[in-house]
Amino acid sequence: MSHAWKQLVSLFLLLLLFLLTPACASGGTVKVADSKVTDDWELVGWRVIGCCCAAPCPCRINKKPMNCHGCDHTDVVHVERGTLGGTQMDGVTWIVIGRGFGQDVEGNWVQVYVDEKASEAQVKAVGDMLAGTVEGWGSRAPYLAGKFLGIRETPMSVSVSSDRREYAASIPGVLEIKTRAIVNPGRRDPVVSTGIMDSFGDRFVHSDALVHTYSDPSIGHSWDLTGKQSNQADFVLNQKRVDEGHLGWGCWSAHASFDDDEPYGEEQVGHAHAATE
């Protein structure tokens, strides 16, 4: 493991163990944890998220997930062009996989994979950004991410269709995910939600998870979530966008610890069945 990776592991563990205050300020905006980052930084790219819930994604509208165990999810982020902390980030991809939003916080976990083609400087830039994001979560970090299992540099590939309606990512032998934008009958444009919670914006396109399989024996987790909820979005992130606010998860509150007593999706289904018997 390189020095950059060790530094990133330390940052994650530190930020997950020693949490900040739970205040919801400025919409819980993204932070970049690097004093060398100036107002000139910008990242342009796309991200895809697939999870175990039914559509639409409840977590993005500050609701509890379908399952009490939480949300098993894959988050693929690809930077097409940009700079961060003086580092050119063109072509960098990282993937965050884990379980979050669970009723029992102890069951939450997260694993990070980064494209082995990334340079040490790019890896460090990604690490600083991820650490800043976790910092921005404050006391909500264990609910959103949980136990940090590690980081792996690994071969991976990504693709996007020419009309930007299909996205795919692969970690050979570990992850396959492919999504396609949902277009309703009689409509030309994909189905879109705005005002959502997300680290990369406040808008996404609803999509079908054509494939979503994961298996990593080294950490003992696997799933097949093909056909479950997914969404995709292009993003432009820069200091101006961050300063505008309405980014991130700092205002998320869909858990009993934050006085949300609403049932989880599977509990609601159970109540409905009981009412009809």
Q: Main beta sheet: strand number and arrangement? A: 13 strands, mixed
Shape: globular
Rounded to the nearest angstrom, the radius of gyration is 18 Å
* Secondary structure: helix percent: 10-25%
The number of distinct helices, counting runs of at least 4 residues, comes to 5
Structural class of the secondary elements?
alpha+beta
Order of helices and strands: HEEEEEHHEEEEEEEEHH
Name the beta content range.
35-45%
Oligomer: single chain
Low-pLDDT stretches: 3-23, 26-37
Per-chain topology:
Elements: H1 3-17, E1 42-51, E2 71-84, E3 87-88, E4 93-100, E5 109-115, H2 120-137, H3 141-144, E6 147-154, E7 157-160, E8 166-171, E9 175-181, E10 192-194, E11 203-216, E12 221-224, E13 229-238, H4 239-244, H5 265-276
Parallel strand pairs: 5-6
Antiparallel strand pairs: 1-2, 1-13, 2-3, 2-4, 4-5, 7-8, 8-9, 9-11, 10-11, 11-12, 11-13
Helix pairs in contact: 1-2
Could you explain the architecture of this structure?
The protein has one domain (about 5-15, about 40-275). Helices cover about 20% and strands about 35% of the residues. It contains five helices and 13 strands. The chain has helices spanning about 5-15, 120-135, 140-145, 240-245, 265-275; strands at about 40-50, 70-85, 85-90, 95-100, 110-115, 145-155, 155-160, 165-170, 175-180, 190-195, 205-215, 220-225, 230-240. Strands 1, 2, 3, 4, 5, 6, 7, 8, 9, 10, 11, 12 and 13 form a 13-stranded mixed sheet that branches. α1 runs parallel beside α2 (about 120-135). It starts with a helix and ends with a helix.
What would a concise description of this structure say?
With 277 residues, the protein is of the alpha+beta class. It has helices at residues 3-17, 120-137, 141-144, 239-244, 265-276; strands at 42-51, 71-84, 87-88, 93-100, 109-115, 147-154, 157-160, 166-171, 175-181, 192-194, 203-216, 221-224, 229-238.
